[in-house]
Amino acid sequence: MDACTQALHLLEQEVHGIRARLDAQLPYALQMPMVPAANVSDAAMAAIEQHMQAARRQLRLRITHFLRRLRQMQPTPRNVADAQHRYALLKLYFHAALTHFEIFAEVLTQRSQHGTGVWLSGLDVAAQDGLRQPGVLHDVPPVICYVERGHGGAIRRARTRLPGGGNNPVSVIRMPRERMVGTGIAASLFHEVGHQAAALLGLVNAFKRALQQRFGVAQPPPVWQAWDRWISEILADLWAVSRVGIAATCGLMSVVSLPRAFVLRINLDDPHPAPWIRVKLSLAMGNALYPHPQWARLAQIWELQYPRSQMTARQQQTFAGLDQSIGEFIHMLLAVHPPALEGRSLGSVLRLPDRHPQALLARWHQVRPRPQQMLAETPTLAFAVLGQARFSGLLPASQELQVIAELLQRWALAGYLPWRAGSKELSVVLNQRRPLAAAFA
């Protein structure tokens, strides 16, 4: 066998190996050892499996085409080089398919961890609830969550390009392990949900159009250039405040409570606002949506924690300019009319009457005897009520986490057992028959 013939033969065998590896890849449903309550939703699993099946089918077609062409080639040096080039491209497609598999496998494998898997399933339900809003978002994608070490959360949005090609069939939210406590869960979760909502509604582009209409062909002032640079993260923060009220801002304050050098650093190459002004912005957005003295009190606390006297002269000047423009910026932001909202303003659809602090406190007093049961039917509202009660001094942090843990279990089990999340039957299953009111006294 001459060298050219052997080269083509080796390539053929390598491609047969790729096809064998592809054929050996089982559906996730046959590989993931998890308790049923920890499963992702049927919609999410179906979307992932359909995506992977389509990717494998496309790759098999490429393999068949390559082998057919290879067998028609004459063993010449030029054809060997051409075959090698085509083989290298085929390997890239194969590696992309494996990358897609590993992305979802990493998320799904955590469902087998004791305790963690059920919590993640409950977070899936809460995230999906935080994305829904009747009359605003239609045909929302499935959402799945996982945890990872690190300080910040992240999202791989649905319908965005995956590494190597193809669109992501589901939203994948990464939750930092250190945020899996009380208010921090809600702040991180609904901020990432906000990124998906903003993409579905086209909010970033809507704001940029409004900014262009405001300043025309002239370049916006530096302060507005900063708001424009940070708008994606600001919209995610706005969505979180809209969903869970002051829980979002308190969670944000916890995330960015870092050494002063980090909190006061302004970097326009970073899509996140400087932490000091980001908290002030969250407070102002909360007050714009749900006016109440609590936002001013918390703003005063933030300025005590990171006083302006510790800023350099340049930082004081920059932050003062940003701070003074917050009111005008938020007024403009809430007045934006994205096409997806069909003539309604952003502020009108994000302002939820049952998330006003007084409404949340009234709700807390109603559910206080059995919050884990009485809040179970409304996941996003549950986080808002608990966060408000904690901020108002009515719910100790340790008890808040206990209630949230039980709620996560309920949301996970309600997708598996034939009972609603707030049913008495589920209380019996979880042995939650004793009221918790005494713990909040």
Protein topology:
Blueprint: H1 3-23, H2 42-72, H3 77-109, H4 116-131, E1 143-148, E2 154-156, E3 171-176, H5 183-201, H6 203-215, H7 222-244, H8 246-255, H9 260-263, H10 275-289, H11 293-305, H12 313-334, H13 346-350, H14 357-367, H15 371-374, H16 379-391, H17 397-414, H18 424-429
Parallel strand pairs: 1-3
Antiparallel strand pairs: 2-3
Helix pairs in contact: 1-2, 1-3, 2-3, 4-5, 4-17, 5-7, 5-8, 6-7, 7-8, 7-10, 8-10, 8-16, 10-11, 10-12, 14-16, 16-17
Fold and architecture overview:
The protein is mainly alpha-helical. 63% of the residues lie in helices and 3% in strands. It has helices at 3-23, 42-72, 77-109, 116-131, 183-201, 203-215, 222-244, 246-255, 260-263, 275-289, 293-305, 313-334, 346-350, 357-367, 371-374, 379-391, 397-414, 424-429; strands at 143-148, 154-156, 171-176.
